[in-house]
Specification:
By secondary structure, this protein is an alpha+beta fold. The strands form three sheets. The chain has a four-stranded mixed β-sheet. About 15% of the residues have low confidence.
């Protein structure tokens, strides 16, 4: 696996770690506009579907599309995901990262611009493999957004299901970006392509980078398994477990051992 920066980019795609010409930096660092709630989530898909046809290297749309997203789950949950061939919102996993109270709370949070959808109708993803909640779990901290079973489990037994915004668009799934965990009273949501671009730039160019670690990327209803391009694991033992689960399947993502994603942050 290629090395990856904290912003979720590889192969020199990160504008922060690999600065572009001055003109592009000026766009990225302009004052951030407050996220508009102007349209239901489906509008994002229509806008970004058009953006996907923009020639590679165009900015800022292409940068947004190449952003990696990360769904963390325990390895025991993989069998169910493979059976359904999707990561499904509201699924009941074998080992649940979230406590029941948090799931109930998300059922009460309306989606901006939607008449009846709630946050529980969306699959949560991180925007960084060093997301704050994941750091708490792998450090063994007592966090209210983590279930007792998740805190008791060995962090090395979790896996990352990795995709990109481009793959979400190709699957024709609507999505939202939240600038912090969605339960927060001051959380802002981006529901259009323009707002998503602005919010992502603001998160990535935050002075200390901490805002990106609190943000959430939310995919409506489900993400098809075919949109997962990489499974990141902690060691060879877990990689073999994943390979055994995938044996005979036509789902053949790259399975890579990447210990830094699973070690407590220094």
């Amino acid at each position: 696996m290629s090395d990856e920066c904290i912003h979720g980019f590889v192969d020199g795609l990160c504008a922060t770690c690999n600065p572009k010409p001055v003109a592009e930096v000026a766009v990225a660092t302009r004052p951030a506009a407050r996220s508009r709630v102007a349209a239901p989530p489906r509008a994002t898909v229509r806008s970004l579907r058009a953006a996907a046809r923009v020639p590679l290297g165009s900015a800022p749309a292409d940068t947004l599309l190449e952003q990696r997203i990360y769904h963390v789950t325990h390895v025991t949950n993989l069998a169910g995901i493979l059976e359904r061939r999707s990561i499904i919102a509201g699924a009941q996993p074998t080992l649940d990262l979230s406590p029941a109270e948090l799931r109930n709370e998300r059922r009460e949070i309306p989606v901006p611009g939607s008449a009846d959808a709630t946050i529980a109708d969306f699959v949560p993803f991180f925007l960084s493999p060093d997301a704050a909640l994941w750091q708490s779990l792998r450090a063994g901290l007592d966090h209210p957004r983590l279930s007792v079973s998740a805190r008791s489990a060995d962090s090395l037994e979790f896996v990352f299901l990795v995709s990109t915004v481009r793959h979400v668009v190709a699957s024709e799934r609507a999505f939202l970006i939240a600038d912090r965990n969605v339960e927060g009273a001051t959380t802002q949501f981006a529901t259009t392509r323009e707002d998503a671009e602005r919010m992502l730039y603001r998160l990535r160019f935050d002075a200390d980078g901490s805002q990106l670690l609190d943000a959430e990327f939310l995919v409506e209803e489900a993400l098809p398994l075919e949109s997962v391009t990489l499974i990141g694991v902690a060691n060879d033992r877990v990689r073999q477990t994943v390979r055994d689960l995938l044996a005979g399947s036509d789902f053949t993502p790259k399975i890579s051992v990447y210990p830094p994603w699973f070690q407590p942050a220094e």
